[in-house]
Automatic annotation (TrEMBL):
Keywords: Kinase, Transferase. GO terms for biological process: organic acid phosphorylation. This is Glycerate kinase. InterPro entries: Glyc_kinase_flavodox-like_fold, Glycerate_kinase, Glycerate_kinase_RE-like, Glycerate_kinase_sf. The lineage of its organism: Bacteria, Bacillati, Actinomycetota, Actinomycetes, Mycobacteriales. Its EC number is 2.7.1.31. It comes from Corynebacterium testudinoris.
Length: 387
């Protein structure tokens, strides 16, 4: 049996809600990149569901997987301050600080993200200094744990920009400060820690990622993600060699799964934490979507749901490998809940019994509303047919 497919024409929106009253609906989408945040997507989908199933118990649980928007899914105070983007230009960036938990939630994309430099990419010279500024600020407010979302970065600097922001200076063999960016990492010889911000460097690190990529090789940070950040084939080769050298200097295994995330930021974090604590026990690389789902209590609440709706911009061959949609699908599996997926583009059949809604053209808020309504109508139809 193929997926149940909704057409957003309004022709299947007329099922009366009384057929399945008080159904519990959980709406847990990712952002629809460039068109709707996860919060907006959840709200519009929920309004669509409510227009069909008026008595539904709807829980909005906007999701993220370590990329842009991850920090906003956690509770806490929103902190905005001036910093710099990947190209070194002044910008503002926001992170979430939970004073009670002494934890800061920071998206690398907030300061060092690709959109800010999309018109003029900086694959060789871009760095994560701006993210390091946020980290240092969070520590001054009392953060003892940094939860860093490693998605959407514009950089391939192995996290050396963060080191500089925390007072550690990468040097070449002549003892001069290394120019910023991953393109210079082949000249890395040592790191001067005389001015190191020890309190900020000594925090516990939770690195959230949606990939298991190693640092180097055909599946590594440069080969897979370098072209997305503007790197040419020759620059990819240069970056891969530079990252290999950096791993040797930092004494990090370049094939460690997940360490290729966000231009290999875990490499510098691993080295820094090991330097201060004697081992990397304070560094945790975790699947972002699962951590967010756990924080929202979704493993428990989905057990009681009748309908679970997730979604993203494009449902494709990457969706089920550590992304939000795949994580939600795994949580639904084995429960009595029906899974529904809304996407701007459906490139894959999502599988047996899954309600699939592909958005059309036009205002995204209207399309998401219609997708929610169509999913609800199909859910009622299926529930009625099954008795």
């Amino acid at each position: 049996m193929r997926a149940v497919s909704c057409k957003l024409t309004g022709s299947n929106l007329g099922h009366p809600s009384m057929l399945n009253p008080m159904v519990s609906v959980i709406i847990a989408p990712d952002s629809f990149k460039g068109t709707a945040t996860a919060q907006e997507a959840a709200r519009y989908l929920g309004e669509g569901v409510r227009s069909v199933i008026r008595d539904a118990q709807i829980t909005l649980a906007p999701m993220a997987d370590g990329g842009e928007g991850t920090a906003a899914t956690f509770a806490g105070q929103q902190i905005t301050l001036p910093t710099v983007d990947a190209a070194g230009r002044l910008t503002d960036a926001t992170y979430t600080f939970d004073a009670e938990a002494s934890t800061a939630y920071i998206d690398v994309a907030a300061a060092s993200g690709l959109p800010a430099v999309a018109d003029d990419p900086v694959p060789l010279t871009g760095d994560t200094y701006g993210t390091g500024v946020l980290i240092a600020d969070a520590q001054t407010r009392g953060a003892e744990r940094i939860v860093l979302g490693l998605g959407g970065s514009a950089t391939v600097d192995a996290g050396t920009g963060i080191l500089v922001a925390l007072g550690a200076t990468p040097l070449n063999s002549q003892g001069y400060a290394l120019p910023k960016g991953g393109g210079q990492l082949g000249e890395l010889a040592s790191v001067d820690t005389a001015q190191l911000n020890i309190p900020a460097a000594a925090v516990e690190w939770v690195l959230l990622t949606d990939v298991t990529a190693p640092v180097v090789g055909p599946d590594g940070a440069a080969a897979v993600f370098g072209p997305q950040k503007g790197a040419t084939p020759d620059e990819v080769m240069l970056l891969d060699a530079a990252l290999t050298h950096a791993c040797d200097i930092f004494n990090v295994d370049p094939l460690t799964p997940g360490y290729g995330a966000a231009g290999a930021i875990p490499v510098a974090i691993h080295w820094l934490s090991t330097l201060l604590h004697g081992n990397p026990s304070k560094v945790h690389v975790l699947p972002g979507a699962q951590v967010v789902a756990d924080a929202l209590g979704l493993p428990e609440s989905i057990q009681q749901a009748g309908l679970v709706i997730t979604g993203e911009g494009a449902f494709d061959d990457q969706s089920l490998t550590g992304k939000v949609v795949g994580t939600i699908a795994e949580l639904v599996e084995g429960t009595d809940a029906t899974l529904a997926i809304a996407a701007g583009r459906m490139d894959l059949d999502p599988g047996d019994g899954v309600i699939a809604a592909e958005l059309g053209d036009g205002d995204v808020d209207k399309q998401l509303f219609q997708a929610g309504a169509a999913i609800a109508a199909d859910y009622l139809r299926i529930s009625t047919a099954q008795g």
